[in-house]
Amino acid sequence: MIQTVYLDAVIKPMGDGSTRPILVSCDDGNTYILKNERIDHNLNITNYNCMFLNEALSYLIAKFLSVPIPESVIINVDEDFMVYDPALKFSYRCKEGLYFGSRELKYVDNNLLENHRILKQMGKKYLNNSWKNFFKGLENNDDLAKIIAYDLFISNFDRYTNEGNILVTNNDKKSIYAIDHGHAFWGASWNENKINGLNLVQANQNYIDYYLNFTHSLNGIEIDQKRIFNFDNLGIIFDAMQNSISLQNLEMHPFKDIVFNIESITEELLDTWFSCIPSKWYIDKNFQIAIFKNYILKQKDLIRYFIQRLVDRNAFSNYLGGSLLWKEKDCGTAL
Hints:
Oligomer: single chain
Number of domains: 2
Strand order of the largest sheet: 1-2-3-7-6
Shape: globular
Number of helices: 13
């Protein structure tokens, strides 16, 4: 379930990005990052009409899989609050309705992210070693493999090249969290491109290669689908994460449990998740649920093959060769 809370106060904007998220307090006494589907691109407003649905579904999946993710809620912005604080409408493009919110994390370590942002503005590159060191000493180091498998499952393509899509908290012990899944499942807008992407899924090697090549292409590398590529350059964040993942033990590797749990997702469980999501966040509820369910129920059995393919093509440096071993499942797809 996803709890519903009511907006109490706007605290401050969070960053200068086009999504204009804002920090708010709600009637449960907690502070949240409130997100908006109405995005300002150089004064042109775009409505990402599937962003809240993506975020909610990704959150429910993450909780089931024990992927580290901030607690999330449905934030009710009522008419009375819009009258009380008109800046919400005029400055933040909000209107009365239901919004997706993520709990504000305390003790976020922003030092490396801020340095990286400044260097990018100066046109300078940041050394990969800095990111690798940033991820050293994580209390939840095993969650790095969970996040990679999770992203492969939900088609969250931009984590590994976007340093803003992970957070590390540091309160004596460092922990990593996955955030921002509005563009998962092939995009934030419900349109022909997203539907076509979701409908691509097939249990064969051609689809596996296409999917991984597409992921690789988002790192700025031109992809010829007829060629076989090494995946030793999936992005600065991926490289830092994989550097802390050991695949030297083919039987007791960190992907084994998360893949088994992904494969255990059932249609009944999906129905429960979709019932938790507000009807107002759907465009065509029955059609969208059918498309998502078809995708998820096929995609879930391919994650082990995605990972083995990445391993075979040099995406992981702490690997000595051989095929990873997996837990047996009652049913599923065999390639």
